[in-house]
Amino acid sequence: MTALVRAGVDVRTMVGREVRRSVRSIDSLLTSLIMPVMILTMFVFVFGGAIDTTGRYINYVVPGIILLCAGFGAASTAVSVAQDRHEGVVDRFRTLPIFATSVLIGHVLASVIRNLAASTLVLGFALLYGFRPSASLTEWLAAIALLAVFIVAFTWIACAVGLVVGAEAASGLTFVMLFLPYVSSGFVPTATMPVVLQRFAEHQPLTPIIEAMRGLLMGSPAPGDIVTAVVWCLAVMAIGYGLAVVAFRRRPAD
Predict the structure, then answer these.
(1) How far is C-alpha 174 from the geometric centre of its chain's CA atoms?
(2) Which long-range contacts does 215-222 make (Cβ < 8 Å, 24+ apart)?
(3) What's the rounded Cα separation, in Å, for the pair 168 and 59?
(4) Separation of alpha carbons 109 and 120, rounded Å
(5) CB within 8 Å of 28: residues ≥ 6 apart
(6) CA distance linking residue 155 with residue 233, whole number of Å
(7) For the chain, how big is the Rg over CA atoms in Å?
(8) Average pLDDT of 79-84?
(9) What's the longest Cα–Cα distance across the chain?
(10) Do residues 244 and 160 make contact, with C-beta atoms less than 8 angstroms apart?
(11) What DSSP character marks residue 254?
(12) Is 154 helix (H, G, I), strand (E, B) or coil?
């Protein structure tokens, strides 16, 4: 029990460290908050009138933008982990008598806090622009839980990447997470895509996650989409966690 309490204190300390670093990095903070709102504004008011979907386009596109925002924010963790590794912070923490992976868990939980806050901002602007979800309280809670699991899963991938590459290379993961939602059902129905892109969009992880999120927010969840989304998130989380722990324990000091 004492070991668990100490581990909890170590994790809390690391979460506080990462939250403070996020607040102090004004440029990164503004990017993570302003960019999703700009993307939302662009798709709703610039492209929305030209895209044909069932129902109002803003109700269709908001779940994809929320996940784009969260995925981009989760991927940015790779840069901060890479900086910690390059500056020797990871090696110093590894030698201290603390819970071994608390530094990584701190990055993950801080990512959840940071990206849920950014997603809330996006949702606020979406409501201002005319987004009208019809989710019940249970569906709202399920949507938030799915979003949190999504953030955790892809943040563990980001941690693994940050532990094996430099900060500049790690930033490439953010471009992947910016691109991936566009080749999914996040912005247009997959049926409107060319055959090759359609096959990719239908079998990549973000499409079922977006469909599950859309169903929950609009009050018409499909159990199959939710199950598939959760399975994808858990699979990505397991892979990311495993790779991150292995890299953390085996990576020699630079």
Answers:
(1) 10
(2) 216/135, 216/139, 216/140, 216/142, 216/143, 216/146, 217/62, 217/63, 217/133, 217/135, 217/139, 217/140, 217/143, 218/59, 218/133, 218/134, 218/135, 219/133, 219/134, 219/135, 219/136, 219/139, 221/139, 221/142
(3) 36
(4) 17
(5) 22, 76
(6) 11
(7) 19
(8) 88
(9) 60
(10) yes
(11) -
(12) helix
User: In the structure encoding, which two tokens stand for residue 12, read together?
Assistant: 């809390």
Task: Pick the closest to residue 160 from 108, 213, 233, 235 (CA basis).
Answer: 108
Place of tokens 């999914």: 184
Per-residue pLDDT tens digits for 205-233: 999 999 999 999 998 888 999 999 999 99
Other residues' Cβ atoms within 10 Å of the Cβ of residue 231 = 12
On whether the CB atoms of residues 173 and 75 are closer than 8 A, the answer is yes
Within the chain, strands assigned E span none
Query: Which DSSP string corresponds to 115-143?
Result: HHHHHHHHHHHHHHHT------HHHHHHH
pLDDT band at 254 (very low <50, low <70, confident <90, very high): very low
> Under 8 Å CB-to-CB from 240, ≥6 apart: which residues?
153, 154, 155, 156, 157, 158, 159, 160
Alpha carbon 82 to its chain centroid, in Å, reads 18
What's the rounded Cα separation, in Å, for the pair 169 and 154? 17
- Tokens, residue 154: 């892809």
Provide the token pair at 223. Answer: 């159990």
